[in-house]
Structure formats: C-alpha cells, structure tokens
Design brief:
The protein is built from 25 helices and nine strands. It is an alpha/beta fold and 615 residues long.
C-alpha cells in the first residue's frame, strides 16, 4: 500500500509538472537531443527515458503528427533512434537528408529549462526583424536551430527563440545525475503567488520605463519644436533684412542707371551734332577734292587706254583694271617687268606684300620670287581656267558701278576707289587699301569647279560663284571704310554691326533677293524665317546676347556648316541673320534715318530697344 502511494505521488507530481511547468519537462529532456534541422522537420535523436508524449510537448506537436511522419514509432521507440518532427503541424514536405550534427554536451537543466519561445515564421519576417522583436542576437537564434540560415529561413517554419536571461526563471534544482535516474518527486512545484508578484513588479517597472521614455520623448519633441520655431524666426528676419538690402541696392542701381542714361543721351546728342558738323565740313572738302580728282582721273584714264587698250572694259561706267590679264601676258613673256611695274606701281606693291607675301617690287629678287610663285603647275592651270572663265567682266561693271555711285552719294566723305581684278592662288578675296579696291577672280569659278572639291567644304562652295563677286566687292569696301567704332565686346554689338552692312548692301543692290545679302541659299533663308523665334529665344536663354566669349562669337558669326547652338539643320552665321532682321525692324520704325546716321548709331542696347524687334 505504501509503495502504491509512492508511485501515485510520483505520477501526480509528474502530471503537475507537465501541465504547469513545461520548462521543467524540457529540462528533463534536454533540447540538445535535436542534432539536425531540415527545411520542414526537426531530426530528433531519442534519449533514454524520453516518451512520445514528452517529445510532442517539447516541440509542441501533436503525437498523431509524429506518427504520421514516423509510422514505425507506433510499435514503440528506443534510445538512439531518430524521429522526424514536423516544424508545423500537419504540413507535409518532401524529406531532405541532412548530415547529422555531433550532439553537444547536454547543458545544465536550470539553464535550458523554460529558455525558449516557439515561433512560426510569417511573411515579411527576417532573422534581423525577429532578433529585434525578441531582443536577442540573430546568431543566438541560429545556434539553437541547427541547419537554420538566411537561405533556409522560410515562411511557415517553426523555430526556437532563446529567451533573454532576465525572462528565464530557474525553478528547478540542477540535477547532475543521468536522465534515466531522475526522481521526479524532488522537483519543486511552481509558485503561482510568486509569479504573480514578479509579474506585477515587472509590469510596474515596465510602466515606469514607458512613462519615463514618453516624458523624454515629449521633452525632445518640445526642444525640437522650439529650435525649429527659432530657426524659422531667424530665417524670416534674415529674409526681411535681405529684402530691405536688395530694395536699397535696386534703388541705388536705378539711380545710377538713370544718371548713366542721361549722361549717354547727352553724349549721344553731342556726338550727333559733332558728326553732322564734321559731315558738312567733309562734304564741302570732298566736293572740292572730287572736282580736282575727277579731272586727274579723266586724264589718267585716257593715258591707260592709250597704253593698254585691253585693260579696261569697253562699256561706260567703271574702268575696271585687268591686272589679271596683264599678269598673264607677263608670265607668257608678252609684257616686260618694266611695263608691268610702270602700269601697276601702286597696286603691284600692295599685291606683292599683302596678297602673295613676297615683298615689295623694289626689294631684291622680287621678280624671281614672283615668277617662282606662279610656276606651280596647279596654280597655272587655275590661272588659265580663270582667264577663259572671265574673259568678259561686263556683268561686274554693270552692277558694281551704280552700286558704288549710290554709296558715294550717301557717304560723300568716301574716296572713289580705283577698281581692279586679280588672281591670288586661292588666297584673299578682296583687297582694299588707300584708293584701291580689287577682287580675286580665281575664288569665283563656280561651286562645281574640280579643283575646289579638293580644298573646300560644300558650305563654302555655295559662295564661290560669279554671283558673289559684286556683293563681296561692296562688303569688303564698306568694312574697310566703316570700321566699328563702338565697343565690339559683346555678341549684340557684333551682330548689329554686321546687320548694318547687310542693310546698306540691300540698298545698294535693290534687284537682288534678300538671301543674297547674307550669302545664303533660298532654302537657308527660308529656314531662318520659319525658326526666327527659336533662334532668338536660344540666344536669350543661353545668355549669349551679351557674351564676349570668343567661341560664342565664332559659332554665331563665322562661316560654318551650321550654327551649333541652334540646330544642325540651321545655316551658319545666324548671328548676322538676326542682326539684319533687327536693323530692318529699326529702319522700318525710323524711315527717315539716313545711312550715315545708322552707321554712327553705336549704342547697341538702345538700337535694339528702338527696333522693337520681337520675332
């Protein structure tokens, strides 16, 4: 009877521990019996004294689920055998074989008892998020779940989470005897009152910590709000100071601009008066000189015709001197050095020094260098072709003569030039010096001339035609006689200067088409007209209008295949096109403005404003 009571007591004590203290049961059946973990199973090695019920409680898995994956266990289990324990009840996965891990030494019961949470991995959870949630290092989680890693961290898998030390309740006495010799009657029962007091204490401590944390957060928030408010007030004060300072500076700038503008207007009025007075004096002097010069030229003209009857054109108007023909005669030994020097003394000096760069006719060895220059076969072939192409130049005389007459009438101070034609070996187009005006005819053989194809681009060839001779004559003459007298430092000043020259050219050659004044094709001129607003906006948006950068000037004013700043479809020199449009707009709004006054209007900003140009 006593023996029966003892066994009954042991069974009752065991039941109590199993029902109320899962930690103690886990301590009796150490967790280290798990030696490998597959993707969906724990692989458990049975220790002596373990039962299916105790193993099911350890893993919190129904006994039926253990039978489902270990049917042989229905006939009984024995120490050393292995069981597949599903991580999630009822879940069937394909079994994967993982090498067994050597069991570690069983830890002490009081360290292992009640020291784990069991957690089923949810969607979105990671090792890091679980370590933060449970307040434990992720490496500690891996260490108690053999086979667990980032690669095997799957949704639905059940894993063990070590509890922090302050949560572990050591309620059992450390047992150093083997598991099969444990006397369960010596395991003390759990004290509910002690747990309640401990829980209340912990809750109170947690509330105090939460209150303190909330107070600190509120203080921090208040400090941040005060700092932000102070910063906003400082910013507002600074903005008000800046606005006041800017207003004062703007007022000062306006006053300076008004003073400068008044000074410039006064200077402009004075300049206009001086220019008018000078123009009247120059006109009177020119009339006297013209009368004298006309008499001398008439006498000289008669002498030239007597000595060189082929040298001048046969029609009335200009007597264009054919230096090109006499040079050809000289090279073919039909004219002596003395005759060439006598008939072209002034021009030959300019030609030798500025065109072919061999020096003055008075220098030693001049004619030896002269002959060597023209002995080159390619140059002689070009020279011969030029003589054939321009045997008759009446078309030049018929257009150039009336144009020069208009120009000399509009600008009485200009000296009437002696007009020549020459060859340069594809060097300078136009030569202007003193009273000399000459053009190199070998640069106008036509776009299809074979030799040009080797040395020039297509965009250059379009202006190497006979039609460009007279406009180039006039532009060269005007550039030499009307040098820009203002400040050519900005793009605006440069394009207005070029625009003035093209406008005057349009007055001198009224029968020409507008695109010819700009050396454009009809298609290029049409493109600019269609895109005038785009061109103007690009110049303004790029801050190029008042730029003095050399490369900016080049891309808008030089002869190029296209204007890079605008478009690859655009022609080159769109800056000159814009200048021409502005001057046209100005003259339309000021029709009584004379050409001399236009050329002397050097205030580029005022001219742009008065033009009211708005594409």
């Amino acid at each position: 009877m006593i023996k029966l009571f003892k066994y009954t007591l042991i069974l009752i004590t065991l039941s109590y521990v199993q029902l109320h203290n899962v930690k103690s049961e886990k301590a009796l059946y150490p967790e280290t019996t798990i030696i490998a973990q597959e993707d969906d199973f724990f692989l458990h090695t049975i220790k002596k004294g373990e039962t299916l019920y105790s193993i099911s409680r350890t893993y919190q898995v129904p006994v039926d689920d253990i039978y489902k994956f270990n049917p042989e266990a229905k006939d009984g289990i024995k120490a050393g055998s292995k069981l597949k324990i599903p991580q999630k009840a009822g879940k069937i996965q394909q079994e994967q074989k993982i090498p067994e891990r050597t069991p570690e030494k069983s830890p002490k019961i009081q360290e292992e008892s009640g020291s784990y949470h069991y957690h089923v991995i949810q969607s979105g959870e990671t090792l890091i998020s679980l370590s933060r949630k449970y307040g434990i290092n992720d490496k500690d989680i891996i260490s108690v779940n053999p086979g667990l890693s980032v690669q095997t961290f799957f949704i639905g898998k059940k894993i063990r989470i070590p509890k922090p030390e302050n949560e572990q309740k050591r309620e059992t006495t450390e047992l150093l005897i083997p598991n099969d010799r444990i006397n369960l009657s010596y395991i003390p029962a759990k004290n509910p009152m002690q747990d309640a007091l401990l829980t209340e204490k912990l809750n109170k401590k947690q509330e105090e910590d939460d209150a303190k944390k909330k107070q600190e957060e509120e203080l921090k928030r208040k400090q941040e709000e005060d700092a932000k408010k102070k910063q906003e007030e400082e910013l507002k004060r600074k903005q008000e100071e800046d606005a006041k300072k800017k207003q004062e500076e703007e007022l000062k700038r306006k006053q300076e601009e008004d003073a400068k503008k008044k000074q410039e207007e006064e200077l402009k009025r004075k300049q206009e008066e001086d220019a008018k007075k000078k123009q009247e004096e120059e006109l009177k002097r020119k009339q006297e000189e013209d009368a004298k010069k006309k008499q001398e030229e008439e006498l000289k003209k008669q002498q030239i015709i007597i000595n060189n009857p082929d040298e001048s054109t046969e029609n009335s108007g200009l007597n264009i001197r054919r230096f090109d023909m006499d040079l050809y005669r000289y090279l073919n030994k039909q004219m002596t050095e003395e005759s060439l020097s006598a008939n072209y003394k002034t021009f030959l000096n300019i030609y030798g020094e500025q065109v072919i760069n061999i020096g003055s006719p008075d220098s030693a060895g001049f004619y030896k260098k002269f002959n060597a220059f023209f002995s080159e076969p390619t140059l002689m072939s070009l020279y011969k072709a030029q003589q054939n192409r321009f045997s008759d130049i009446d078309f030049i005389n018929n257009e150039l003569y009336p144009a020069l007459e208009i120009l000399l009438k509009e600008f009485p101070g200009l000296i009437r030039p002696t007009v020549y034609v020459h060859v340069s070996g594809l060097n300078q187009n136009v030569v202007v010096a003193d009273d000399v005006l000459s053009i190199s005819l070998d640069k106008y053989m036509g776009a299809n001339y074979p030799l040009y194809q080797k040395y020039f681009y297509n965009y250059q060839l379009q202006n190497m035609t006979p039609e460009r001779i007279v406009p180039d004559y006039l532009l060269g003459f005007m550039m030499a006689n009307f040098p820009y007298e203002g400040n050519p430092g900005t793009l605006l000043e440069s394009i207005l200067y070029e625009g003035k020259l093209r406008y005057i050219l349009s007055r001198l050659l009224p029968n020409r088409e507008p695109w010819e004044y700009l050396a454009y094709t009809k298609e290029q001129y049409s493109w600019c007209n269609k895109n005038d607003s785009r061109i103007w906006k690009t110049i303004l948006n790029n801050d190029d209008l008042y730029s003095s950068d050399y490369m900016t000037m080049v891309q808008y004013l030089n002869e190029t295949p296209y204007t890079a700043a605008i478009s690859t479809e655009s022609p080159g020199k769109v800056g000159i096109w814009i200048g021409f449009q502005i001057i046209n707009a100005y003259m339309k709004n000021h029709p009584k403005t004379s050409l001399p006054i236009l050329m002397n209007f050097i205030d580029a900003q005022q001219l742009l404003k008065d033009s009211k140009y708005k594409p």
